[in-house]
Amino acid sequence: MQFTRIAWRNLKRNKVRTFIAILAITTVVVIVVFARGLMVGITDSSFKMYIDYMFGHVRITHEEYQIREALLSLDYTVFGFNEAGVEAMIGEIEELDKAEYVLPRIRFGAMASINDQLIRMIGVGIDPAREDQHGTLKDDIKAGRLPEMGNEILLGRGLLKKLGVETHDRITLMFSDTHQSLRGRTFEIVGVSEAGVAALDDRFFYLPIDTARDMLWLEEEATELFVFAAQTREADALKEEIDGLLTERGGNQYSTALWNKADPFVDFYYEVAKVMDLVYVLFIVMGAVVIISTLTMIVRERTSEIGMMAALGLRGRDIMKVFVLEGTFMGIIGSFLGAIIGGIITFYYSKAGIHVEDFAMLSKDLELIIEPVFYLAFNLENLIVSFALGVIVVTLSCLYPAYKAAKLEPVDALHYIEE
Amino acid sequence: MYLLKIAFRNLFRRRGRTLILSLILTLAVVFFLFMESMMMGLMDITFANIIDLETPHIEIGREEFFLEADEGNILPLEETFVPDDDMLMAINETQGVLGMTKVLDFSADFIAGRHEFPVRVRAIDPLTFGEVFRNQEYLVEGEFITGNGSGIVIGERLAEFFDLQSGDFFTLRFQDRRGAFNTMQGDVKGIVSVPHPDMNLGTVFVAKEQATKALNLQEDKVSQIMVRMENRDQALTQAQKLGVEFAGRDYQVRSYRDAAELLVALEAWGYLETYFILALFLLVGGIGIVSAIVLAAIERVKEIGMMKALGLKENEIVRVFILEAAGIGAIGSLIGCVLGAVVVYWLTFYGLDMEAFLDLGDLGVPMGDKLYGAWNTSSFVLIFIFVVAIAIIASIIPSYWAARKDPVEAIQHR
Amino acid sequence: MSLLELEDVKKIYGQGEIKVFALRGVDLEIEEGEFTTIFGPSGSGKTTLLNLIGALDKPTSGRVQLNGSSIGEMNKNQLALLRRQNIGFIFQSFNLIPVLTAYENVEFALKIAEKGENRKAKEKVENILSRVGLGDMLHRRPNQLSGGQNQRVAVARALVKEPKLVLADEPTANLDSEASKEVLEIMVRMNKELNTTFIFSTHDPMVMEYARRLLELKDGMICREERRE
Question: Which partners does chain A have (≥3 C-beta pairs < 8 Å)?
Fold first, then answer.
């Protein structure tokens, strides 16, 4: 207790010096809070697209389909176990522990001819009842509703514009069925969706899966099954369970893939995230360097005081304690302020988003990027982790100067003359 | 002179402190040099591949054609043109032109077996194509388009998708000039494997004569004139010059950079990111400098007072501290430049094996498995000057703070 | 006109409730070439008086006139210029610049006072250092010299620019008696040879013996004055 009081009062002996040291830690902790918020924010908002629209947490497809996905082949479908239909299979998957729900999809290529211009698009057959209950598709509907039956379709906002049509209009689309014959069918537009991602909004339309099966000559099949777990981080466990089920029920022709395989960019991002963990520590260490140099100077300045303490009978570890405590206090105050300020910043940007176009003036070339907005993730865990990281690294780095203080011989220390 | 001498020697009074605080700046410098080298290397090889394989230094075509192409729409056949002699002459006379070829790009569906896939068909003039492009060098099977006969050359990925080998049968389905569906059939003559994912999958080569016939087009119609230049700088300046010359004639002259807008944006994005992180490093480094000056000023209170007694003005004392800060900056960035040089050298000559890390090809970036950095001496000079300048700026306020110390108090400070 | 004139000089430290009256009204005139000692117990205001004379500080009230100009009306930079040209300081704790050698410390002071190149600088510096008996230790740094040697460098530093006035605040307080004597004798000799005015403070009776004019300070007032030959 005595040492704590000494250390605390020592902090106030040179306020400017203490302030700078604390400022350094505050700054690096703010940087870490911000960077972690950004990284988590990107996973949550940007990669959610892959989960919601492209993959689920785990996607089940035919093995061959996965290899030639870009071809949107209708030859390799999921047809249940022993070709008994996909509904029974979905039922079995939903029985699994980790599985929450399954969304079956049929993806196929289609075209429309508008003013002699051919427009390519991708049709997605969806299960209206399931989508209504679970998926996020219905949240993206900006006008109208989900297609429920017959020749009803839902168009992406960009596609709607390209085709030059409005809701309730009728439109004829062309597509190849499983027998490779080109066919046409007229649909009624019952809704418009907008996911905010051009890749989806400009190319995708949705229709009931039964209609898709009917027009493509498919039976109770689907090209892909999106399986969702309760939480993204359970995806691995879910995949294992599904793999187990597939082996057990003889579904070896099917393969499963985790959502983060949807796009190599996700993998790339995870590699970067791993590197970033190191960078966080590096930044804190840089801040701690300021504390180390401050503390080293303090030890030098107080050499005769240390001698006096030693003469009073304090042991080396007691002296060490005084200095470590002084550094730790700086670490705690700095990290605390950093967590608070960082918290405020991430909270603000979790609501407002970082609009990159604000930086566009920095470079004319950046104008080409279509308004990317990053929403930071604000959560308490981030603040606590960053705070703890700050305190731990600073405390550890105080050990060296404190050790040097403790090692001083009392006689030398008392007779220490500055330079 | 003396102020400089004192500042210089002061640097070595607390060697440990000077070193660790300057190491923060070292980190900033190494980070920057590494990132910049990677970025430039990545961009360099990417642009090199684009120039060699897809869009050379300069391309000339109808504005509308480029508009649709950039949108990813079906390429419009009505926007093809017959280049007149004036135009070809003007291009030929342009400084730095190495070669020129005409191509006719159009959209089609590639059909083989039970599958089809939308592709861009590039109809080429076999005689001049090699003067501009290098696709031919990446042939892995069969032969490239040589004469005017039928047959196509496809990319490796497309061949994999359709399980094709040279000699296999294919069908291309497309709309001709009048909008009628037509097909072109024949054998796959050859397969190329280029370090450009899009070209490997989505582009098919065919002899121009075959294409114009099938499309019902006038014989000399082309969609783009492709020009190869001596180097990229020339490409940019000459593209601009030609652009002015062809203004008002409905043609657009594009450099390789105009054609690869997304890549250019990616490049700018990368730089923005690098500069942002660099700014964070330097912010911490700046605080380190402030701390160095404050600590030194506290230690040297008496000296400051004595210098004032000798008659030094505050400005001169400020100068001593700022010079010291500049020294810390210089030491930090010098070490950074040396370490950076080692890293960049290694990057440039041995390359970074990206395979272990990720398959960049999948990202749609046209480059190989190994990423080579670029060596750019001016980066070293710039970052050195920049970091020293930051150190100086960071030290201004604390230096004034130090010089303000009251001489009377300072001298008597015990 | 005298070199230095003080007229009813008062100096009060601190503000608000706690005020310290360091000087309560000092009148003083010093002519060129004098060798004056200010004597008094610690806390009597010696250092404050020297700081005011040395243009390091301004009086709270009253007038300090040095070489014809009044320091109360000057700004910081003007004070700095006044100091660099007219005044040499010798401190109790030497206060040499630790990173410079003896030679450089002296040359530095000279360079500050005389802007521009001075061909004779080297000669001057070496000359003054040998006069204080350090001719063979020119290139040692302060931490390689003894206390007395340090103080002799300080004397040389104060004298090298040939100032009108040299102020020494307890120059011998950190020295043993042998070294003290040496330093004082050097100062007396310089006073005679160069006709430099010396003012120094002390509470050491031995130092007083060297003075030709003695001022005794007590509670911020001059209480006794004495001239000897």
Answer: B, C
Scanning every residue of chain C, which has its alpha carbon at the shortest distance from the alpha carbon of A419?
Answer: C143
A16:B285 CB<8 A: no
> End-to-end CA distance of chain C, in Å?
23
Task: For chains A and B, count residue pairs whose Cβ atoms are closer than 8 Å.
Answer: 125
Which two structure tokens, joined as six digits, stand for C167?
């102020």
Q: A113: domain range?
A: 52-261
Give alpha helix (H) positions in B311-364.
314-349
Contact B288 A75 (CB under 8 A): no
Query: What is the tally of structural domains in chain A?
Result: 2
Judged by DSSP in three states, B84 sits in: coil
* Partner A contacted by B362 (CB < 8 A): yes
For chain C, the farthest-separated pair of C-alpha atoms sits apart, in whole angstroms, at 55
Q: Is residue A170 part of a domain?
A: yes
Do B288 and A120 make contact, defined as CB atoms within 8 angstroms? no
Residues of A in contact with B20 (CB under 8 A): 289, 292-293
In whole angstroms, what is the distance from residue B137 CA to residue B153 CA? 13
Residue A202 lies in a domain: yes
Q: Choose the mutation target among B119, B120, B269 for the interface with A, i.e. most A CBs under 10 Å.
A: B269
For residues A112 and A178, membership in a common domain is answered with yes
Q: For residues A276 and A255, state if they share a domain.
A: no
Domain boundary among A261, A279, A301: A261
Taking the Cβ of residue A418 and every Cβ of chain C, the question of whether any pair is shorter than 8 Å is answered with no
Claim to verify: residue A274 and residue A207 sit in the same structural domain: no
Answer whether residue A314 is part of any domain.
yes
Structure ipTM: 0.79
Are A74 and A167 in a shared domain? yes
Domains of chain C: 33-59+73-214 (3.40.50.300)
For the cut 60, the answer to whether the pLDDT of residue B237 exceeds it is: yes
Full pLDDT tens readout for chain A, 419 residues = 677 888 888 888 888 999 999 999 999 999 999 999 988 887 777 677 778 888 888 999 998 888 777 788 888 888 888 888 888 898 888 888 888 899 999 999 898 888 777 788 999 999 988 888 887 788 888 888 889 888 999 998 888 888 888 888 899 998 888 887 888 999 999 999 887 777 788 889 999 999 999 999 998 899 999 999 888 888 888 999 999 998 888 888 898 988 877 666 677 777 777 888 888 889 999 999 999 999 999 988 888 888 877 777 778 888 888 899 999 999 999 999 999 999 999 999 888 887 766 555 444 444 444 446 778 888 898 999 999 999 999 999 999 999 988 887 766 666 555 44
Residues 52..81 of A with a Cβ closer than 8 Å to B: which?
68, 70-71, 73, 75
Residue B326 CA from chain centroid, whole number: 33
Nearest CA in chain A to B117: A71
Choice between A311 and B184, residue whose per-residue pLDDT is larger: B184
For B94-144, the pLDDT digits (tens) are 888 899 999 999 999 898 887 888 899 999 999 899 999 999 899 998 899
Kindly write down the DSSP assignment for every residue of A295-310, as one continuous string.
HHHHHHHTHHHHHHHH
Asked whether residue A344 falls in the same domain as residue A293, the answer is: yes
Domain end (from A234, A261, A288)? A261
Which residues of C are less than 8 Å from B9 in CB distance?
A: 99-100
Is residue C132 within 8 Å of residue C182, measured between CB atoms? no
Asked if B290 is an interface residue toward chain A (Cβ–Cβ < 8 A), one would say yes
User: CA–CA separation, A279 vs B41, rounded Å?
Assistant: 23
CA atoms within 13 A on the CB side of C81: 7
User: Chain B residue closest to A284 (CA)?
Assistant: B284
DSSP type of residue C50 = H
Residue A419 lies in a domain: no
Residue with structure tokens 């592709």? B119
Contacts of B407 in chain C (CB under 8 A): 56-57
Regarding whether A58 and A35 lie in a shared domain, the answer is: no
Nearest by CB: B299 against A297, A356, A365: A297
Residues A257 and A270 grouped into a single domain: no
Answer yes or no: do A371 and A283 share one domain.
yes
Considering CB atoms only, which of C84, C95, C97 is closest to B311? C84
Q: Which residue has the tokens 């009148």?
A: C27
C91 to B10: CB separation less than 8 angstroms, yes or no: no
The whole-angstrom separation of Cα C65 and Cα C84 is 16
